[in-house]
Amino acid sequence: MTVPTDLSVSRSLSFPLFLSLLLTSASYTDSSDDETSPRDKQQKNSKGNGDFCIKNIKQADFGRREIEIAEQEMPALMALRKRAQGEKPLAGAKVVGCTHITAQTAVLMETLSALGAQCRWAACNIYSTQNEVAAALAEGGFSVFAWKGESEDDFWWCIDRCVNLEGWQPNMILDDGGDLTHWIYKKYPNMFKKIKGIVEESVTGVHRLYQLSKAGKLCVPAMNVNDSVTKQKFDNLYCCRESILDGLKRTTDVMFGGKQVVVCGYGEVGKGCCAALKAMGSIVYVTEIDPICALQACMDGFRLVKLNEVIRQVDIVITCTGNKNVVVREYLDRMKNGCIVCNMGHSNTEIDVASLRTPELTWERVRSQVDHVIWPDGKRIVLLAEGRLLNLSCSTVPTFVLSITATTQALALIELYNAPEGRYKQDVYLLPKKMDEYVASLHLPTFDAHLTELSDEQAKYLGLNKNGPFKPNYYR
Amino acid sequence: MTVPTDLSVSRSLSFPLFLSLLLTSASYTDSSDDETSPRDKQQKNSKGNGDFCIKNIKQADFGRREIEIAEQEMPALMALRKRAQGEKPLAGAKVVGCTHITAQTAVLMETLSALGAQCRWAACNIYSTQNEVAAALAEGGFSVFAWKGESEDDFWWCIDRCVNLEGWQPNMILDDGGDLTHWIYKKYPNMFKKIKGIVEESVTGVHRLYQLSKAGKLCVPAMNVNDSVTKQKFDNLYCCRESILDGLKRTTDVMFGGKQVVVCGYGEVGKGCCAALKAMGSIVYVTEIDPICALQACMDGFRLVKLNEVIRQVDIVITCTGNKNVVVREYLDRMKNGCIVCNMGHSNTEIDVASLRTPELTWERVRSQVDHVIWPDGKRIVLLAEGRLLNLSCSTVPTFVLSITATTQALALIELYNAPEGRYKQDVYLLPKKMDEYVASLHLPTFDAHLTELSDEQAKYLGLNKNGPFKPNYYR
Amino acid sequence: MTVPTDLSVSRSLSFPLFLSLLLTSASYTDSSDDETSPRDKQQKNSKGNGDFCIKNIKQADFGRREIEIAEQEMPALMALRKRAQGEKPLAGAKVVGCTHITAQTAVLMETLSALGAQCRWAACNIYSTQNEVAAALAEGGFSVFAWKGESEDDFWWCIDRCVNLEGWQPNMILDDGGDLTHWIYKKYPNMFKKIKGIVEESVTGVHRLYQLSKAGKLCVPAMNVNDSVTKQKFDNLYCCRESILDGLKRTTDVMFGGKQVVVCGYGEVGKGCCAALKAMGSIVYVTEIDPICALQACMDGFRLVKLNEVIRQVDIVITCTGNKNVVVREYLDRMKNGCIVCNMGHSNTEIDVASLRTPELTWERVRSQVDHVIWPDGKRIVLLAEGRLLNLSCSTVPTFVLSITATTQALALIELYNAPEGRYKQDVYLLPKKMDEYVASLHLPTFDAHLTELSDEQAKYLGLNKNGPFKPNYYR
Amino acid sequence: MTVPTDLSVSRSLSFPLFLSLLLTSASYTDSSDDETSPRDKQQKNSKGNGDFCIKNIKQADFGRREIEIAEQEMPALMALRKRAQGEKPLAGAKVVGCTHITAQTAVLMETLSALGAQCRWAACNIYSTQNEVAAALAEGGFSVFAWKGESEDDFWWCIDRCVNLEGWQPNMILDDGGDLTHWIYKKYPNMFKKIKGIVEESVTGVHRLYQLSKAGKLCVPAMNVNDSVTKQKFDNLYCCRESILDGLKRTTDVMFGGKQVVVCGYGEVGKGCCAALKAMGSIVYVTEIDPICALQACMDGFRLVKLNEVIRQVDIVITCTGNKNVVVREYLDRMKNGCIVCNMGHSNTEIDVASLRTPELTWERVRSQVDHVIWPDGKRIVLLAEGRLLNLSCSTVPTFVLSITATTQALALIELYNAPEGRYKQDVYLLPKKMDEYVASLHLPTFDAHLTELSDEQAKYLGLNKNGPFKPNYYR
To answer: Which residue intervals make up region (Disordered) (chains A, B, C, D) (predicted)?
Structure first.
């Protein structure tokens, strides 16, 4: 089987994420396994079922413990399970999924199952699978096709095994990156006749769906989970507020107090980074292209500068723009000795790393994810994660964020699966505001937070339904 | 002339605002004036022009100084004037206005004039006129009809004098509260044939316009200046962050450190209040009905509670909901002695003040805007501004916010006046994103803030025009 | 009677304070009183007692209400009263006092009385007396000699009336500024034979006591209440954190967000100012002479600069040094138009205001406490309180701070009065750490704060007494 | 050679520190070394010198690079070297040292050498030596006796080799933990005749010195470097502000936003922890025994509670008391599932870990430094570093803090070595305030911070020397 060229490109786009999960899962996965390819093994779980392909079914117990720990931090999914004891909103659903296979995903899959769905699953990344979790899922009766360290050929073989099964056709797709969707488009386009919808989580995958939609080729409704307000705020503002500190500390042990930092971009990510660093005693400068965000930066107490005004004096440069070539060689040349450079934005193009790969500069790897780039005069700059995303490469994604995403995915599947004919057309949708609010409400108990309810009189006064939605769709 | 009943109601809606301006202007206005009604006086300015009706033309010099001071803090309008030296985008415009008549408004009017417009102006509030500013405007040739302490009859007479002039018909309306618009609808509906658009600034006025639009009665395009992002963020988040402290201090001299505060509502206003009080060392609790805002409160470090959980222990209760009966008698009964109660929201209904006007409770006015309500057992609660808006009643609106509003008004007039046929229909519009961004950019020099410009390559990469707009319309 | 020249100087040192109290009390005091000097009136209270000299005994009821309100915010003194129901630690004490005569002082005096003391009292400032409070005290049987608007001659006459009474000799002195102490030194030195000690509250008074002590002329023990840790931290760090915002807002209505501010001096006052302004979104620079405080400023996230580096760009200049000539004419010349200049430090010499009183500069009083100083080219700087203390002149001192001071004064009197022979020599003392801690503990209930107690085992482990003191004396 | 029993105890007190350095240095040290004990090897450096005992002289180049990197972050020591080019304040000094042997120590040693001193050095901890740094020092001519993984016998053998050398007697001691000092007391008491002083850095070592002093057995002056203000503030307030976040993230990946945290103790460490967590959006409660610190906590915006009031609801428990048995089994029993428990204080006794080692509880090691303790009902608490210091075990000490300590050590050596006869007696001293200020000033350039200098007139006004000291000794 050959890998379609256009697909291989897309996968590399989600490259940084696997590093993060690689890091997290590193401590859990033993490396003493034998070298036989899982594809060459015949394994069965304790009930005699062999419809899966994973590294080693014997790791199931260890994986189960991982899943149990994750369950404790994903109360929203557990709450969904409870509510599903009476009704099964996914009864009859046949979900084919392609995501990172981690303990958190396992909690999602077992929730979908509790809600009535059948699931077949592949990994969306060749490195990110937690083998012991895959084993626990297989032992639990899930048809999982994934292991850590798949080849590119393995990758597509696993996806194919998920969808290409006699007597079974998926009617829902849960995708992360769009590879699964793309494979079905390429290989089994007829399957879409029975498919009720696609739920897609990643920026890349969503982008592809919009392109399909524009081109008139999207043949089922798709739900864009990536842009729901809860996910956005948590992934960006709140999560980056913490991960910028974590990523910088783990890689460089830098003391934040008194450091001069320039943050390029004052969107949600930039706002989170700036707030955290200011709180830790750094002196923060901001660059912006959008005058509205620029004015917000001013009001929040940051000097708005052009990069060249401060580049000689800052200790840390952080990009959060989503733009390309924000930190170019010219700026890198002018940074002072020891300056730390990293990227928290949405692409790996913000820092022009390529421009540093020239003969006169010496690269020295001083730690995992940390390079010193050394100028002829001895000046060093400290480049983190080779300019890729710091928060994904050098810190971990909190389970709480993953829980929000997973809950949103589950609700999106339920919504698409149960929506009356005609509610959704062949287009890309955001989750209805009310379901966004529902996801949020399921996460409030984590904080022992008590929501106030509108009285009938108040609801009438405000012109709102007592159960929401409470805000216009564009509220962020 | 009789005042139409339905109008008199509407004006009372903007009641709180005048208190604020009354407060501000109090120190500037001498009270030694004679008692003759301006309507009975014959005054002319130094050039012999008498087409105005104000308190006393002799105060013009003093008013001029006020205007000059305001000019220094409204650089965006001054920048507009400069750019207008070449072209006159309002050449031919005949603007009839009805706003508070203050030094800041004068800067706006003189800017409109510099841009080419003719202006006739009345006050939107019977108390808020700065007489000396009105004098300076009259001396400068503006037809102003306004004085501090108008009667209701005076109020409508002034508005009528603005529009009812032989040989002059307005082609643009700038309104604050909708009274002027309403007057023309009632009295001179034919005028709308020549009117190119309405620019409205207030919540109330905008609300009326949407109602007209819904009812199919809006016969010209209208620009909703109130909801532009720059105004909203400044009026709500940033402005309230400061005015909550100011309003509480001026009225009660309370020390914030260590105080327990409950803030009802975590929208922009609530976010601003909470941030400020937390920073001053208060312990802040939040109540919310919307789970998304609730989750934001949690992530921002506030305990989310129901009001009854903390009502006995808090020192200060602040409402920011826009809702009614948030603080009802039941809660007021349970507050502890000395508890301060105030309202920062959008209506004067959030605290059920009416429920406190019962025989067993004693009211004691201890300062301007401060009442002690005393229970039979001696318990006192401290009620501020009788439950009306604290920030308007007991603190001042920063000139910077007024500058943003005035600049937006000017741009909205220019846009409506110059828009090609068909761009705007008989509907209510938000200012185009790009003009929002332009307003923001005009205010950046105040902060000595330097905006970064996209390179051609970057603009292409992002799919943006180099000059904006940079964000989707819903960005907040 | 002539006023000794050397005394008149000292009084003027505490000048700024009266402004503050003047401001606070302004709204409470009616100005409709007759013009007769209190010294020429014969008044008696309802019990026929006439041993007092005040403005008008008829205001007693109004004053009583003021006192009752103050009692609610001074729970520590009320707690002292309760504990004194069994024992009277000041039984036999004859206290002569000279302080501001306000509702808070009244609560102190009535507490001393409840503890067993007899009191005679004069005002330490010719303007600060709340006449109605003095009336309430006189009605309650206190021998008070004070009214608002005393002449210098009145001032000393009142003090003299307190101490010069046949058949009564004070045995304790409570002073604020040292004028009372000085008077007794000058006129009745023999009185010190019976005096057990002096309690002094002000910087000036403490300074004088140390000078007496150095000169070997201090003939009784004195307690320096001014430098106790609770007072210092509250007066400086916590109080200034709030009063810098309040003082600036009340005088200028300036918006803090985005403003560039330089704070001269990073002691406790500077730390408080910087923290508040940073929290409100200002960009704050710091100047310092002490490298340790400078390093603290850096770690707290402030750029440490020399004044000349930022003087051209800042919007607000705040002095907190206790030094002289920190802001000199050279800097004032270079400030930008509209720059606000004020002083939060310990003297009125920090800004060289004298240098601004030159013919080429125009002064314009724009509000109470606010002057525009105008350069020939039209540049204005905004000078607050003519360079005197902003927090005293333009904001109010929170009752909580006054409560801490008053409680410390009461405890200091008790300590000195009851100390066994020999514990205190003829020297100036700080209150013992343990009593400092006791003052603090009496204020914790205000915050519903619950202190943890050491177990016997823990106390032994730490080598501490379970009841304190818990920290070394130098702990701040 | 036998190890004296009383010494072995003391060393275990500094146990946590080695873990930290172990962690830091882990990535730098290759583990592929041969197994021969260094004591059995014969090594010489490139100049033929063999007076050292280390792991492997061949690692010198790698160690040199480490030292060069450290030099860049220790500008104060580098500045001392520069100033010493003219004079050699330690000429003739023979320093024997016993500290962690790391790159930062190497920078200190080479600075002492540049200042004129001869040095012989051993490790104060059996695990913390960076072998490659020791190699670089040996190659550079230093007599170093230390390697990673010494036995207890090796430990004392190395110390002995430092001091027991024919023809060489130390005249200065630099100690960290007091083991070296103790060894000389035990074995070579006569050496103290030539010794001019001891500089001690650790809490433990300082404690021992004070005990010696009390017992009248201290026979030379000793300088307590541990309690200098710069070290205290940086080690405690500023450093813990960062390391609490770092330590929690690295071990648990916990999201801070919205978490409920109780911090036991509000001294400098507690203040740092609380500030950081509040800034990250946690809801923080504080417990205190000292009412003054308690009042500070209130004013800083933290609810002051007893531990039992919140123990059921909090997500994280942090001890910062220096006390013992602050978190006892009773509290651990009542914590909720998943609660994280850790210690930032000064001892490993704050959490009663021993009480958790009972049969009904299961311990599960889930990561390095992270244990789950599992109750019979399945409840887990997450115990970090087995109750030892989190900041030392699970995060790193910033080089900047180490730089301050090392600079203070160098200045203390210079001061004691050059002090005129009689300035220091046989007692324990703090570094003179002025030298504290000097240490601070040497670190200001790191922040590009510009100190203001007093004018002659100002210095006179303040009664200060222009060069300091600027504050009383007790200033913190």
So the answer is: 28-50
